[in-house]
Amino acid sequence: MSHPPRILVALEWYDHEMHSGVAQYARQAGWVLDNWMVHFGRIPAHWRGDGIIGLVVDPHGDVARFLRHWRRPAVDLVREVPGLKVPRVLADNQAIGRVAAEHLLSCGLKHLAFCYLWGNWVEGERMRGFQQAVEKAGRNFYPLDFTPHPHHRLRAIDDVLRSWMVRQLKRLPQPLGVLGQYDEEALLVMQACQAAGLRIPEDVAVVGVDNDVLSCELGPVPLSSVDRRRREHGYQGAALLDRLMHGEKRPLEPIRVAPGPVVVRRSSNVLAVNDPELTQALRFIAEHYREPNLRVTDVVKATFTTRSRLYQLFEQHIGRSIKAQIRRQRVDHARQLLLTSRQKLYSIARVAGFRNAEHLTRVFKRDLNMAPSQFREQKSGVWP
């Protein structure tokens, strides 16, 4: 192009993090972003440009109507209007469900529930990933399914939903782990727990999705949440738009953006095991896994029980060995640092409890089938 590409940011549902990701790519690519719609909620009259990056939620809205007649490159960041024939970059919702389930399972929870409230495609995908991980671990899955209720006929839907949630939580076994589709649904679960007289996280551990810091601090206790990496989502949407503007063929399937880890706050910071020896062992590992010389014998000594007894407790309640639990915590810590920092590999290895960068690389290749550098390249791309 003889002029800097002019790109319209058409976010019908405004997301600051996604917008930031688009803006970062625009700076790198030398784009001129038209943010008119971000401020005024409508496409500027007689708009002309080179590409559109949208978040389209209304099939009858301005953006959907405009895109149906648009003949230049465009990318949608959601799939709320399936009939719109536009390339898409979407969250990997099944992976989000798996990440949340793995976190709750690592807390020792045997009963896990998913809030299936509206019946949309995002909920469906996240619930499938969550349910598969729970059932694969041999634990109990419960759908909190509100969809049979006629939403459009309920005048006071918030009150009806909250009362319904209270009843559901009271009937399910505790301790219970619950995932909400977004942070807002998770906040609703915590409010229902309060109304039901259930303690958070001792009776019900709660996790949301988005890691919206403001929302996560609004509940009765700070909310744990899956980092959906929304800034990376916007960045990858802009990157796809750039490739399309340079003549690349549109992908046959949506590009999926992998989630980051669960950002753990008080709402799920619990070890839901009844055995005091196992609780002590898990707490000891959580406090000492960053020490590269930590051994299984150290964990056994901290519990004042026999090695065979502790092995049996780990296999029965956690589903993995003591050594595997230490390795898992180190790998999880390293993964989070790879996604959220620019630290060198040797520094990450030291902070996460590995002997050196070579040790970290060997463990990553064994557990994740890729080197740390490959993990960082595939899963990240935009720094917070």
Summarize the structure in words.
Helix 4 (93-106) packs parallel to helix 5 (121-136), helix 13 (322-340) packs across helix 14 (345-352) and helix 14 (345-352) packs across helix 15. The two termini are 31 Å apart. Strands 7-6-8-9-10-12 form a 6-stranded mixed beta sheet, sandwiched between helices. A 4-stranded parallel beta sheet has the order 2-1-3-4. A two-stranded parallel ribbon has the order 5-11. It is of the alpha/beta class and 384 residues long. The longest helix is centred in the C-terminal third of the chain and has 19 residues, at 322-340. It has helices spanning 16-29, 36-40, 62-69, 93-106, 121-136, 157-171, 183-196, 213-216, 230-245, 276-288, 296-303, 307-318, 322-340, 345-352, 357-368, 372-379; strands spanning 6-11, 32-34, 51-55, 74-76, 89-91, 111-116, 140-145, 176-179, 204-209, 224-226, 255-257, 262-263. The protein has 3 domains: 6-86, 3-Layer(aba) Sandwich (Rossmann fold); 93-228 and 262-268, Response regulator (Rossmann fold); 276-379, Homeodomain-like (Arc Repressor Mutant, subunit A).
